[in-house]
Amino acid sequence: MGPKVYFIGMGPGDPELLTLKAWKILKNSQVILYPGSLANPEMIDFLKRELPFSEFYDSASLKLEEILEIIEKAVLDGKQVARLVSGDPSFYSAIQEQIEGLRERKVEYEIIPGISSATAGASKLGIELTYPEVSHTVIFTRFSGKTGGATPEEIKSLALKKATLVFFLSAFYAKDLENTLLEILPSDTPVAILYRITHKEEKIVKGTLKELSELMKKENIKKTALIYVGEVLKLSFQSLGKRSKLYGS
Q1: Both 222 and 151 in a single domain?
Q2: Which of 61-75, 107-121, 158-172, 232-246 is predicted with the least confidence, judged by mean pLDDT?
């Protein structure tokens, strides 16, 4: 098999959360593209320091066609390409349009999973997102904005499922999200706002649904944050005493 492009989930930002498989591929990649507007500078500094002979391209200012041209040319030149993606490629990474463009160009690709910011956030909160009799379901979604997402009616339907809700790319719409959820959920439903998790400037803010937009405003959080909603968040400050059958007597 000839050279190809690897879409690599680089995790939420902490260089130490890069997977061993991702690192092995990166060490053998001659061309590396990374999302400069999303990546932790510490991660990029680490990669540039450890991989001084690789060509690096910041895709933040590049159009889709320019990204595809860089990848195609490198592969045709016999170079292995690593396309870094924040978090895990399966969540809101916009890789599908790149994949479709590569298929048209007959460029081979492979996806390498990474640690999602959503699971890293749960770790920071010190909780399990699923818990007996409280939440057996976790829903990853986003509030409808300029680039699409779940409508208010769809979100209200999701909220009725008594699931743990995790909202990506929704910080800008915090007030709209708050008003939508308050039509379905109690005002004291726990929420958590996790800003730039595993970066130096990370913030973790906890409160209730009725306080969501005010908390965002107070902390001056407008983007790059996950919003968690659900009763399971109580586990971050109290024990609920439920037991799974896994460890039952």
Answers
A1: yes
A2: 232-246
